[in-house]
Amino acid sequence: MKKDIVTLNELEKEDFVCLFDLALELKKREKMGVLDTFMAGRILGLIFDKHSTRTRVSFEAAMHKMGGSSIYMSPRDMQVARAEPVKDTARVLSRYIDALAIRTYSQELIEEYARYSGIPVINALSDKYHPCQVLSDILTIIEKKGGYEGVRIAWVGDGNNVAHSWIMAAAALDLDLVLGCPEGYMPDEDVLEAAEKRSGKQVYVTNDPFEAVSGADVIYTDVWASMGQENEHSQRLAVFKPFQVNQALLDAASDDVIVMHCLPAHRGEEITDDILEGPHSVVWDQAENKMHIHKAVLKSLILDNR
Ligand code: CP
Ligand code: NVA
User: Fold this and answer.
1) Cα 191 to ligand 1 centroid, rounded to whole Å
2) pTM value?
3) Which of 49, 160, 167 to mutate to test ligand 2, by most ligand atoms within 8 A of the CB atom?
4) pLDDT in tens, 156-215
5) What is the whole-number distance in angstroms between the Cα of residue 124 and the centre of ligand 2?
6) Ligand 2 binding pocket mutation candidate from 127, 130, 236 (most atoms within 8 A of CB)
7) Exposed end of the chain (fewer CB within 10 Å): N or C?
8) Domain boundaries, the chain
9) CA-to-CA distance for 126 and 228, rounded, in angstroms?
10) Which residue's C-alpha comes closest to atom 7 of ligand 1?
11) Which CATH number describes the domain made up of 13-130+290-302?
12) What CATH number matches the domain at 133-286, 3.30.70.1230, 3.30.70.1560, 3.40.50.1370, 3.40.20.10?
């Protein structure tokens, strides 16, 4: 496996499979009450420049549950806020800690950290990608659907960072992914091109949400205005209204469709309360799986890659 996970494009198909298998094994061990300590003495650093509940806590919990520890850093308190170069910060932190998870606006910043760090760098969300989110989501699909082959996944809503990571994962694993996004809010061209180059297949994007979910086994949605887009919120509400995941949309999908959302959810916007709380929703198991995949990511990058 490569040193870092910053886009998902660095992972081969077998790397994905190893991560899913390891996550399932570690989850089983945890449920059996086994207390692992193989990460003893290892430290995960987290630099988070945006809000987070799930990603931060699940990374820290994963590290602690494996016997390691973590240091949370706000970039506002670090010397980078006073113009110390990222390349210097990355090289210094690499002398103290064993891996670095970063959540920030700029994908380029995460890639700069990865370039100058001697330790694994993990993208914990940028404006462009949210790779570990989609790794854990596929783990949930494996559990709920018995695998991902032949499973039709419909992304409904904004062609955003999470959608971009779905596109990259679909290219690597040959997933049956259809995206339903409003005109003007389609995924970025460079992401579509990178995915098409990798898979040799066109990414299917429609502006019709009902076409996107037709026969779908999985419906996935996310907020209409991501972090950093708060000032576009009211304008986006109007454009995205037909893309709300509600009962009418579910009626167009498979009878046993599962509904996924990376959370946090805005009830009454991208998803209705009855669907989020209803029998098709798997969002709480999905959120739990972030911790199990993070265990696998950390163990693979810190210990197994050495
Ligand atoms: N899904 C997700 O990344 O949640 P947080 O923003 O709470 O980390
Ligand atoms: N697209 C969302 C995902 C949050 C986990 C955002 O970037 O805010």
Assistant:
1) 22
2) 0.98
3) 160
4) 999 999 999 999 999 999 999 999 999 999 999 999 999 999 999 999 999 999 999 999
5) 11
6) 130
7) C
8) 13-130+290-302, 133-286
9) 10
10) 53
11) 3.40.50.1370
12) 3.40.50.1370
